[in-house]
Amino acid sequence: MGKGSLVTLVEAPVRTRWMVAYALAMIGVAAGWFGPIQILLPEQAARLAGGDGKESLLALVTAIGAAASLVANPLWGALSDRLGSRRPIFVAGTVVGVAGLLVLSAADSRPLMIGGWVLVQIGLNGPLAALAAMIGDRVPERQRGTVGALFGVAQIVGVVLGTALAVAVGQGAPGYLAVAVAVPALGAALLLIHREPVRISDRTALSLKWPGSQFAWAWLIRFLLNLVNALVLVYLFYYLSDQVGVADAATWVLVLTVVNVLFAGIFGFAGGVLSDRWQRRRIFVAVAAVVLAAGTALLALVPVVAVAIVASVLVGAGWGAYVAVDMAVITQVLPDTETRATMLGVANIAGTLPQLLAPVIAAPIVTRLGGYPTLYLLTAAIAVLALVCLPRLRALS
Question: Which residues fall in a coiled-coil region (predicted)?
Answer without folding.
Answer: none
